[in-house]
Structure formats: C-alpha cells, structure tokens
C-alpha cells in the first residue's frame, strides 16, 4: 500500500479499452510536479467498485491515490500540483472530489440537494487553462463527493462488505473519511477540471444501496 | 459553481417529505423496471436483427422504429438507444447517395455507440487544441471505418461538446488537406447555418478559402 510520498497512483476500474485508452491520454498529458512520478493501475473484472478500488489500493505504491472512472478525462494540465496544493493547505483534508454536497439531503440522493464543484458538461466552452491559478480557487468542505474522481492522501478501506455493487461507494467512502476526522473537499473550479462521458445513470439498483447507506450512516 | 437540486424543493419542505418523495420515486421505478428493461431489450434485438438483414426495407424499418413514441420513452433509460437515434438521422441523409450507409457499416446497435464515443473523443481533443498528431487521428479513424462526412456532422450536432464551430472549422481543414474539398465545403456550410453569430465570420472565411481552392 502507498508509502511513496512522491507518487500519484491512478486507480481505474475498466471494462472498455477505448475509454481506458482515452482516459490514459489525458493522464499522460498532465504536468508532473518536480520530484514526483505517476503510475496507472487498471482494474479489470472487478465485482464491485469498492472491491475493485480495494484491489487497486493494495497494488498501488503512491501515497496520493486518484480513483477515477474510465470515462473521466482530466482537462486541467496542472491537476496534480493543484491536488498537492489543496492537500498542503490543510493537513486535515483527506479527500478531494470534483462535485460534492455540502449537506446531503435527507433522502441521501445527492441531486435532491444543492451541489458544488464543476464539470465540463455544465461549462463546455470554458476549458482553456492559460492564466488559471489555484490560489484564486475557493476550496469547499463537503459531506460527500461524487465517485467520478476521488483523490486521497490516506488509505482507508472501501466498504465492499456493504456496497457490493456500483452505487453509493462514493458517498460511503466520504463518510468513512469524515468518521476518521478527515475533511472531504471540492475545489470550486473556475474552469472545469474534468469531463465525464457518463451517459445515462443506471438506477436499477440505486435504491437498494441508498437504503443500505441510510442504515449505515444516517441513523 | 453551484448546481441546483433537480427536484421541486418548493413542494418538499421537510426532510420527511423528501424521504417519502424519494421512496415513492424509486418504488415506482422498481415497479416499472421489468417493463422498461424488456422494452429496451426488444428494441435492441429488433434493430440488431434488421441491421444484419442488410436490405433497404430492413433499414427503413429501423428508421420507423426509432421514430416511435415507445422508442423515445425507452431511450431515456439507455444510452445506446439514445445515441442510435443519431445513426438513424445519418442513414436518412446518406441513403440517396450511391454509397454505403452507416447501417451497412455496423452489425449491432452498440457498434454505433463505439463510433459515437470515438468521434466525441476526437472532437474533444480538437476543442482542447491538442497536437496535430493526436487530433489527426480522427481522419485515420474515419478512413479506416469508411464513414461518410455525415457521420461527424450529425454526431457533432447531437453530442454535448463545446466550441462546435472551432471543431467544425478544424475538421473542414483536415478534409481539405486530404483533398476532400466537397466534404470540407459541406462541413463549413452546415456549420455556418448552425453557428452562433460571433463565429459566422470565421467560418465564412474558411468557406471562401475552400471555394478559392476548388
């Protein structure tokens, strides 16, 4: 598990080579901060997001781990140094996301409440990063982040014991970080840092895991 | 940026009301799940079957299927069905030209999903101003898949991407560099029709340069 303080480990559960290769194209374009290196760990055939991410966590060597969907494309070339800046700004910050809920709604459905952050889909023209300065960015503490991109500096096991599917792994992990006294944050993003080709959300099993989440974290 | 809730919070004032709303929504979704899933399977099965018949009549059947209300309802739950609507539009544009259509190129509905995905990847690379070596891959892909010019035109129209005018102009440039002047002109003329006012001049200049070279 991640002992290398100068390494970023990207962990990606993947089942589509075309998406994975395109995701890698953007990772390979990132400017790597001096003294740091990057590894990318694809996880194939995962039974659930949590089990896949736990598998990736065990294989990864980096202290800083970025759990990424295969259909997420990092647009911000300074993404890695910006993550470091945010982690260094407050030692209690344990996890960073791109979209999050300052307060989760009572229904535990994030889009039933207000959310913060940014995504390419909401701001499609605003993608050129010349002149962008992380120091101008507001960092917002949240109760939960969306699983499209979750960057951590601590290794906390994902709850595959409860979340054995593809929903609520993200909200669960957010709660696990907060339970341990760590903050979960989202940068406001004057320009969207990521694009996400997520298509149409599959909600068939969503309610099953929603109830599990509420039972575990909201009683 | 702040994203507003995607529900009417004026009618759901208390936590209890919100929980009940969510419970009712998901209960209803669950009740309809079998019906919706069956509908999606039937449409996909039908379309795949007709694609493999490879006749004009079967292709016309696909178009009429895509235009039904039932299809429009099902596509709200399935991304492959949703994108395939664009394939149907492409076919309708291509069918009177004496060449292979998009339906001749694919065997299954999700083959078009793969084409759509790749095209959007390439469009985004162009939008971000990546190197020519990386952006030119779109032309290699179009050639290798034997896709008509209607494919990038319609996918660009329907996909959620920014700076469509810049992408169209760059695409036209690429076609022009390959000696495909008619296609280049076509892309630019379509782009001018759809363009936001601030980009019309740029596109008209591009069109005029292409016309000069003809």
Structure write-up:
- The complex is a heterodimer of chains A (219) and B (214).
- Chain A is an alpha/beta fold and 219 residues long.
- Chain A has helices spanning 17-29, 49-59, 79-89, 169-179, 206-217, and strands spanning 4-14, 37-44, 62-69, 72-74, 93-97, 99-101, 115-117, 139-142, 144-145, 149-152, 183-187, 194-196.
- Chain A is 26% helix and 27% strand.
- A 7-stranded mixed sheet of chain A has the order 2-1-3-10-5-11-8. Chain A has a 3-stranded antiparallel sheet with strand order 7-6-9.
- Chain B is an all-alpha fold.
- Chain B has 12 helices and 1 strand; from the N terminus they run βαααααααααααα.
- Helices cover 76% and strands 1% of the residues of chain B.
- The chains are: A alpha/beta (219), B mainly alpha (214).
- The interface between A and B is large, with 41 and 40 residues.
- Strand 7 of chain A pairs antiparallel with strand 1 of chain B, so a sheet runs across the interface.
């Amino acid at each position: 598990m991640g002992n290398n303080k100068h390494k970023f480990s990207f962990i990606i559960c993947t089942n589509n080579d075309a998406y994975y290769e395109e995701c890698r194209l953007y990772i390979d374009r990132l400017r790597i901060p001096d003294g740091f290196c990057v590894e990318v760990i694809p996880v194939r055939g995962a039974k659930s997001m949590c089990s896949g991410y736990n598998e990736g966590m065990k294989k990864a060597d980096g202290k800083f781990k970025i759990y990424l969907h295969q259909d997420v494309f990092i647009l911000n070339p300074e993404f890695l140094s910006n993550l470091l800046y945010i982690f260094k700004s407050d030692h209690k910050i344990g996890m960073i996301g791109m979209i999050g809920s300052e307060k989760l709604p009572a229904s535990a459905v994030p889009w039933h409440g207000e959310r913060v952050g940014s995504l390419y889909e909401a701001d499609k023209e605003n993608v050129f990063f010349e002149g962008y300065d992380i120091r101008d960015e507001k960092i917002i503490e949240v109760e939960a982040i969306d699983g499209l991109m979750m960057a951590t500096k601590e290794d906390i096991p994902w709850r595959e014991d409860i979340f054995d599917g593809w929903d609520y792994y993200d909200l669960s992990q957010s709660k696990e970080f907060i339970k341990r006294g760590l903050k979960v944050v989202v940068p406001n993003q004057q320009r969207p840092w990521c694009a996400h080709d997520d298509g149409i959300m599959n909600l068939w099993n969503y309610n099953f895991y929603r109830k599990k989440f509420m039972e575990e974290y909201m009683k | 940026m702040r994203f507003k809730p995607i529900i009417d919070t004026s009618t759901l004032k208390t936590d209890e009301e919100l929980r009940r709303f969510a419970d009712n929504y998901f209960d209803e979704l669950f009740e309809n799940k079998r019906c919706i899933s069956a509908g999606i399977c039937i449409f996909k099965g039908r379309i795949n079957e007709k694609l493999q018949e490879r006749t004009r009549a079967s292709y016309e059947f696909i178009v009429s299927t895509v235009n039904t209300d039932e299809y429009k309802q099902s596509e709200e739950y399935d991304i492959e069905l949703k994108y395939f609507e664009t394939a149907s539009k492409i076919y309708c544009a291509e069918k009177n030209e004496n060449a292979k259509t998009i339906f001749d190129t694919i065997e299954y509905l999700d083959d078009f999903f793969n084409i759509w995905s790749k095209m959007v990847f390439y469009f985004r690379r162009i939008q971000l101003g990546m190197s020519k070596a990386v952006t030119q891959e779109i032309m290699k892909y179009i050639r290798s898949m034997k896709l008509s010019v209607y494919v990038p035109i319609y996918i660009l129209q329907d996909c959620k991407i920014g700076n469509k005018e810049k992408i169209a102009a760059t695409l036209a440039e690429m076609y022009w560099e390959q000696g495909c002047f008619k296609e280049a002109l076509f892309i630019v003329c379509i782009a001018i029709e759809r363009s936001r006012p601030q980009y019309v001049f740029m596109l008209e200049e591009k069109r005029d340069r292409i016309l000069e070279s003809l």
